[in-house]
Structures are given as C-alpha cells and as structure tokens.
Amino acid sequence: MNLAVFVPPQAAHGRVPVVYWLSGLTCTEQNFTLKAGAQRVAAELGLMLVVPDTSPRNTGIPGEADEEHFGAGAGFYLDATQSPWSAHFRMYTYVTEELPALIAANFPADMRREGIFGHSMGGHGALTIALKNSGRYRSLSALAPICAPMQNNWKPWHPFVRYLGEDRETWKQYDACELLAHQRFPGTILVDQGDADPLMGGLRPELLRDACARAGQALHLRMQPGYDHSYFFVASFIGDHLRHHAKALT
Amino acid sequence: MNLAVFVPPQAAHGRVPVVYWLSGLTCTEQNFTLKAGAQRVAAELGLMLVVPDTSPRNTGIPGEADEEHFGAGAGFYLDATQSPWSAHFRMYTYVTEELPALIAANFPADMRREGIFGHSMGGHGALTIALKNSGRYRSLSALAPICAPMQNNWKPWHPFVRYLGEDRETWKQYDACELLAHQRFPGTILVDQGDADPLMGGLRPELLRDACARAGQALHLRMQPGYDHSYFFVASFIGDHLRHHAKALT
User: What ipTM, to 2 d.p.?
Assistant: First the structure.
C-alpha cells in the first residue's frame, strides 16, 4: 500500500496529533498531497497528515481496475466479505488497525489524539469509521461526503453487492445515515458541500442532516454556493477543516 | 495560448489588483494552478492571479518540443530574434503587452496595480521583466529564480544562442544580474531559495545578492533550510509572497 505522510515541524519537540485523510473514488494518495494545499496549514497547526490510497491495487483479481465505482480506487473503506474481494479489499481494517500501527511504529504521532476526514467516498469513510469507533477519533469532518451509500443506485451493480453480498442488512454498518440510528460521534461533525456539485444526487447531504437531527447528533453542515466536487473545492475549505481538527486535538 | 485566471470574490465590488505568475521550465499554466495552493490566500487578499503558459506550443517548428531548456515549455520570457523562433517565441511581448491587454478587456482587473512573480525560469522572467519596466510593476518576488542565466552552461547549447544569436551583448537585457548594472526595482524584491535545491548551481542566488548590493537594490533573500526546487517548496511560501504583493497593491 502506498501512502503519504506529512510531519509538521512541531514534531521536532514531541509527538503530534494525527489526522487521517480519506480520498474519493479514483484517487490515490497523490491527489490530496498535490492539490489540497493542506501542508502549509497543517504545519502551522502542528498536525500530522496521513493519507492512504483508496484501495489495494494490483491484486491479480481479474477486472479489478475496470470500473470507477468498484475495485481499484474504490475500496469504500469497508471489509469485503465476498470472494475473491475479501482476500484483499479490507480497507476498514487497514485504516483502523494496520495503518495506525504502521504510523505509530514509524512516525512521531501521538496515537491518543486521532482525527479523521475525507472527500466524497472518503467522506463516507471518515463518517462511518468515526461513528463505528465512537470515542476513538476526537475530531471528524467531511467534504462532499457520500452520506447514504445504500440510497445510491450505482450501475450496473451497487459496489456493496460484490463486496458484501446481497443481504442489505450487512451494508448498514457502512452507511453513515444507518449508523446514526444507534451510534453518535462525541463532538460536532463539520461537513462542507458545494451547491453546484454535479454529483449531489448521489451524495445526499439532506439525508445526513435529517439523520443527525433525529439522532441528536451535532452537525455543522455548510452549503457552499457555487462550489463543485473538485479539489479546488477541497482546497478552498481545507483550512477550515484542519482548524476544526486542531481545535479538538491540540 | 492557454492561461489560467483566478478572480477573487472582492472583484464583485470593483476592480482588483492583478499579479502575474510566471512558471518554470516544462510547466504549463496547470502546475501552479493545481499545486501551489495560492487561490485560498489570493481570495483572502483580493488579488487576481494571471498564470500564462511558459511558451507557445504546436508552432510547427521542427524539434520544438525535443529539449527541456529550449522550445516548448522553455520560452525564457524573451523575444527571440533568430529565425525560425522569432516568428513565435516572443514571451516578453506576450507577458508585457498582449496578455495584460487580454486581461484588461475580459476581467475586472485594475491595470494600474500590477505585480509579478514566478518560480525558477519564471523567477528569471519576473525579475527581468520588472527591472526592464521600472515603475510599471508595483511588487516583485521570486521563488528559486534563475538569477544569472548568462552564467549558466546549459548543454548542448545555451538556449539564448538559438533565441538571440551568438552576440552575448544582446543577452544582457534578459539577465537580472546584468540588468541591475543600470536598472532598479522601486521596492524590495522578495526571493526565497531552498538550500537543498539540487538546481542551485544553475540558479546563482549569490550573484543576485551581490548584484543587488552593488546596485543598492533592496532585496530580501531568504535561504530556506531543507527545501528543494519542487512545488512543495512553492506551496510552503506562496502565502508569504502573496502577502508581499498585497502589501504593495492593496
């Protein structure tokens, strides 16, 4: 697995909090690293940034890289249960266990202070991972997240069918709106969403707003006029998100 | 010619100052646009950013795109005088006349408030253009600029040979250190240079420092420990440079 790590200058004086960035469909660790403009702000705030790839790659599974919403670049931050994907596509365990262990062993990170955020599919990952591990992550935010993947009608197959099987009950642990029926994040979730995002119909921020309202979950959802789904949108608000994390972590 | 323009939100209320960014060898207008993280800061400061390509392209001249230091991506912000290049490679006139006219006609720019900066070959462009047009540009800075191109021994040919001919006297108008013998910039020139830049031997910041000292030219040269020549270096200090320009322009 490739990954990118930004170590801020404050690490010269002691362990620093770590924020995981989860990227969207088709991305590698490079998109955020090159385009988000995050390092300059993270350097000011003293945050380590850990940026994994979005899936395993070159697993040898036939057709692995043929689709935009499934396989390579589309790990959806879940643990696949269906063969042959279950042997490799275990991004949930990677992000919550293997990757933090690797960071703890190799970088000056304070693993008691973890935050998580992401974009699009990575926003889905951040929301579901933080909700499933209530109390572990001290800060949570997302940019244009996929809020309710079970409501999406990806063609020709919903990616969860091949990762998790046909039983939709097993999908609910990877859907933020479903998780909010019985999980809370102990803090305010910051979410930015461009109102000119052409993918809005598949992101469903209104369902997240409703689910948080029903659950009593604190949510700061900001609809940003004129913004689309691109990394220009991410770069525009990355500073706000990093400050949101720093407020909880530093 | 491709170009990128960032219009800050302040332009909704009136014309805004314009800062030209000149890019380095091999770049198009995309490198800065995607990697520098400049827009967020320019939006705060109310600066329009104008980012031209680094040369004409697809001119039909044989071998135009065969070399890194010459031809496509390597216009050196000069007006070629030698055939066949003189018919197309006129970046000096493009940046100082054609491009500003295009901006004035199409964007809410206040053309009485222009600044200029750049990276590497683009730093050379910014320095030479501002020195040759003393009084026009109100602010000037550069990141890892080529300070003394006449001292460079590019192989197999110095690019100026084919653009300008063998008479080195004609080269001096495109060499910042030579221009400082008789030109001044009416303000402080901000220059950042990474001290781990592998191209340092071709950039010669020490010659710029000496030429400015001899000329009585105000220069703020910052050697940045551990930084290389990449856009990570640019992104690290782009905020300081934009604030340097805003101080003079707003």
Answer: 0.91
